Amino acid sequence: MLAGSFSSRAYSFFDTLLWIACLNLLWILFTLFGLGVLGAGPATAAAQILVRRRARGEAAPLLRSFAREYFANFIRANALALPVMAVALALAMNWNYSSGTGDLMSQLVAAGTFVAAIFLAGVVCYLFPMYARYELPLGQYLMTCSRFAIRHLAGTVILLFVTAAAVYASRALPGLIPFFSIGAWLYVTGWLCDRFFAANDESVAALALAEEGAGDSGARTGGGSIAVGHSRPQGAPVG
Fold first, then answer.
1. DSSP character string of 155-198
2. Where are the beta strands (DSSP E) in 49-147?
3. For the chain, what are the domain ranges?
4. Which of 78, 128, 152, 215 has the fewest CB atoms within 10 Å, counting from its CB?
């Protein structure tokens, strides 16, 4: 019995590692296919959609599913990713400029830029997992992710820690990047976000039920929860 259980868990573990490695390779290939800047957003959207499906226990051919979601979400994912890339580039340029001088004002600007970059990183961790889970108007994703990141600080800290660990491991062992680093980050952050969102949905539903029982049809957020939007139909492409 114990041997069978161990074998099953070992098989599941190594199967997940292989799936992550394939996801990592597909993300790199499809990002390059989109010339980098135009490929990263759709590749990330496709990856997070497939991570969520795997977390729900769905099985599908990885390459075919990734390609389908990549092309189906090419325009919307770029509309979501490109502004974030522009802000990240602006913050990086501002940091390089202000941190290179020694006067007090420049150091304060550099500190503010660093804080803004950390906040942006936290928001980005939620962005495509939220895109994979909820149907929202395109302009609402960043605002909703920002609110979620602030109101769920514990989860945001966990995601930032995972991100920092992935960056550190990739810098210490650059050989991980072509095989595991990106895929592992996408898988872990997507898996965590899916659970954070599920817990939040349960809190919002419980709050709405309590308000309904009290005869109150007012706001549906409170107690650290935030109403996000309608979940996507299971298995449906994001369009």
1. HHHHHHHHHHHHHHHHHH-GGGIIIIIHHHHHHHHHHHHHHHHH
2. 134-135
3. 8-231
4. 215
> One digit per residue, pLDDT tens: the chain, 239 residues?
455 577 778 888 888 999 999 999 999 999 999 999 999 999 999 999 999 999 888 878 899 999 999 999 999 999 999 999 999 999 999 988 887 777 788 888 889 999 999 999 999 999 999 999 999 999 999 999 999 999 999 999 999 999 999 999 999 999 998 999 999 999 999 999 999 999 999 988 888 888 777 765 444 444 567 777 667 654 433 43
Please tell me the chain's helix, strand, coil percentages from 3-state DSSP, rounded to the nearest 5.
80, 5, 20
In angstroms, what is the C-alpha Rg of the chain?
20
CA atoms lying within 13 Å on the CB side of residue 122: 22
- For 219, what's the count of Cα atoms within 13 Å in the CB-facing half-sphere? 5
Task: Look up the pTM and report it.
Answer: 0.88
Element (H, E) at 102: none
Q: Are 237 and 69 in contact (CB under 8 A)?
A: yes
Give the integer Cα–Cα distance in Å for 67 and 62.
9
- Tokens encoding 64: 């075919």
